[in-house]
Structures are given as structure tokens and as C-alpha cells.
Write a structure and sequence with these properties.
One of its GO terms (molecular function) is potassium:proton antiporter activity. This is Ionic transporter y4hA. It is found in: Membrane. It is a multi-pass membrane protein. This protein is mainly α and about 375 residues long. The chain has one domain: Up-down Bundle (A middle domain of Talin 1), CATH 1.20.1420. Helices cover about 75% and strands about 0% of the residues. The protein contains 12 helices and 2 strands. The protein has a two-stranded antiparallel ribbon. The longest helix is centred in the middle third of the chain and has 35 residues. The N terminus is likely disordered.
Length: about 375
């Protein structure tokens, strides 16, 4: 077919092999099946990154990063709801733990590694201050309303909302996220386009290449969603082996959620790092902060809808240590981006916060 000439063969085969592995390797134990699953999982992640770049090149910024963020979030929500439906004592805290892990990974690891790599290669990189503040003000509001405020309400004991409160917060989250998308893609789209140090449009390497055809773009979009679905399901399949390894080192079970969240976020992480290495830090920040907003701004409303129909309790409030780390992460990211210039120091500080988060998870 015509479109196959413009897409590498491995990017077409990877999602197929991933789904075949998912349906044929389920229930098998042993070293070889685990190695095969890990191999096809990595191949699926790399293929997802490639297809995301194809789509992004066709539609331009910031629409390409929005598509990847929304695709990953839809898969993440599906995984959370499917695990919650299986019940169990841990199901009530699953949405909170998954969202918090994803937010901490994005804010401290993905943003930190992008700033560090970009700063090491180019000394200084530039972002639009208005883009950073727009994303962070929306993200801060949703994070505090969904993960912190539940600890201080009195209508219901425990770190959770009553049903009316949960519905209200879900609506507020959707309003904030929708407003951000309107600002990012329509009203102030220029804020989110790459800029140089003088505020002029930055030079993009991709501009020298012809954009993919509509047919190629559609195929890449379908394969992107297919790859992301396979990545999440394979991560879920590997979770028992991860749990065994975590238990073997005596770490708490919450580390399993962090590992799975890192696997699910791998496509966004790799895409963001590649953009930073091309001196397009604004694209990296669009992807990271947009993913963080989509992760919590869409996940919490979806969980709220599910709990209303299933009558399943959901815990949202995080503990004191997590609250302090969350506030520190937001504050550090804000200080790192608000000047419009970044260097390696900001990346180092963010990565040390991420290391602290991991350390306190293992040794609370």
C-alpha cells in the first residue's frame, strides 16, 4: 500500500506483535515469557513515539502534543476503571495513587530530564513565560482541589468527597481543563509555539521536511492509539512479576503503581526528551504540562462518573508527606520556567526531588 512506503516497517509490525504477545502470552510464567513481553513492550513504546511525531508534524504545534496527551489519558482512564471494577480493598485508592504517581513523574522526572539534557547540550533553552504560567495555574488549581482539599472536608470522614462534592469537583476540573485547551489551541496558540531568546518563532528542523500525507497521518494516529493500548495492557500483564520483584526487596506495594505509571508515560517521556535534544524545550513543556493536566483533569471526572453508577467509594486525599512533595514540585517547576530561560541547575533540582519521592515511597 502507498502509505507503507512512508512509514518504517518496524513501526507497522510493533503494535501487531504487541497485541499477539498480549493474547498468546497471558497466564504463562517463566523467564522467557517475561523477556518477550518486555521486548514487545519497549517496541510498542518506540513505535508510539514515532507515530506521535508523524501526527504532530502533520497538524503542527500544539495540536500534536494535545493528541498524544489525550490518547495516553484515555488509555490510563480505561486501565484505572477496569482495575477499580475488579474490586478489593486497594481499589478505593487506585485512582488517587495512579494520578499522583503520574503527576510526580511528569513534574519532576520528565520536565527535569528534559531541562537537564537540553541545558547540557545548549547551555540555555527558552520557553514562553505565558505558556508556563497558563499551564501551571490550571494544574495547581486542579491538583489542590482533587488531591488536597478532600483531607479537610467534614461532610464525610476520611480523605474523600461526598457524591455531590465529587460531582462538583469533577465539573470544575473539566471547566479548567477545557479553558486551558481553548487557550492553548485557539485563543493564545502563539504562547505555545517554540520561541528563541528574542521571542521570535524558533527554527524547527521538521520544517525542512515535507509533512506526511493525510493517509499516512490517519494510519499513524490509529497505530498510535493501538500501540498505547498494547503498552498499557502489557504493563498490566507484567504487574504480577513486578509485584513479586517489589516484594522481594521489601518495598511497599505503592511502588508497583509508580513502575506501571512510568511504563505508561514512556511514549510521552521519550517524545519530550527528543524535542529537548532538538532545542525545542517549549514542545517538551507543552507535552509534559499538557499531559499532567489531561491526566488529572480528565481522569477525576471519569472516575467520578464511574463511582456514581457503581456506588464504589473513592479516596482522593493524599497524605501530608505527599502534599509537601507535590507543593515543592509545583513551586520548583514554576520557578524553573517563569523566567523563560532554563539551565542544568533546574533539571538537577527537579531530578533530586523525584529521587526523594522514590526514596520516601520505598522507605516511608
Amino acid at each position: 500500500m502507498k502509505f507503507s512506503l512512508s512509514l518504517p516497517t518496524w513501526t507497522l509490525l510493533s503494535p501487531v506483535l504487541a497485541w499477539i504477545a498480549y493474547f498468546t502470552m497471558g497466564g504463562r510464567t517463566g523467564t522467557l515469557p517475561v523477556v518477550i513481553l518486555c521486548f514487545v513492550l519497549i517496541a510498542g513504546v518506540l513505535a508510539a513515539v514515532h507515530h506521535a511525531e508523524v501526527v504532530a508534524h502533520r497538524v503542527g504545534e500544539p495540536f500534536g502534543t494535545i493528541i498524544l496527551a489525550l490518547a495516553v489519558t484515555v488509555i490510563e482512564v480505561s486501565l484505572i476503571v477496569s482495575l477499580m471494577s475488579s474490586g478489593g480493598e486497594k481499589a478505593a485508592a487506585l485512582a488517587r495513587d495512579t494520578v499522583f504517581a503520574a503527576i510526580m513523574i511528569i513534574l519532576t522526572f520528565i520536565i527535569g530530564i528534559c531541562i537537564l539534557i537540553g541545558g547540557a547540550k545548549f547551555r540555555e533553552q527558552f520557553v514562553t513565560k505565558h505558556a508556563a504560567t497558563s499551564a501551571l495555574v490550571a494544574l495547581t488549581a486542579i491538583l489542590v482541589l482533587t488531591l488536597v482539599v478532600p483531607n479537610y472536608t467534614t461532610s464525610q470522614p476520611g480523605p474523600q468527597y461526598t457524591q455531590p462534592q465529587l460531582v462538583f469537583i469533577a465539573v470544575v476540573s473539566l471547566i479548567i481543563y477545557s479553558s486551558f485547551i481553548m487557550i492553548q489551541s485557539v485563543r493564545h496558540r502563539d504562547y505555545f509555539l517554540p520561541k528563541d531568546e528574542n521571542g521570535n518563532p524558533g527554527e524547527e528542523e521538521d520544517l525542512h521536511a515535507l509533512p506526511p500525507t493525510v493517509k499516512t497521518t490517519i494510519v499513524s494516529l490509529i497505530l498510535l492509539i493501538t500501540c498505547l493500548g498494547a503498552v498499557v495492557l502489557l504493563a498490566k500483564m507484567l504487574s504480577p512479576f513486578i509485584e513479586t520483584g517489589v516484594a522481594a526487596i521489601g518495598a511497599p506495594n505503592s511502588l508497583v503503581g509508580i513502575i506501571i505509571a512510568m511504563v505508561v508515560l514512556l511514549p510521552e517521556c521519550i517524545a519530550a526528551i527528543q524535542a529537548a535534544r532538538k532545542n525545542r524545550l517549549q514542545t517538551s513543556m507543552n507535552l509534559a504540562l499538557g499531559s499532567a493536566l489531561a491526566s488529572i483533569g480528565l481522569t477525576i471526572p471519569a472516575v467520578a462518573i464511574y463511582t456514581l453508577f457503581s456506588r464504589t467509594p473513592v479516596l482522593l486525599g493524599i497524605d501530608t508527606t505527599s502534599t509537601v512533595l507535590l507543593i515543592l514540585s509545583i513551586f520548583t517547576v514554576m520557578l524553573s520556567l517563569v523566567t523563560g530561560k532554563t539551565n542544568v541547575l533546574y533539571g538537577v533540582v527537579l531530578l533530586t526531588i523525584f529521587a526523594t519521592y522514590l526514596f520516601l515511597t520505598i522507605f516511608p
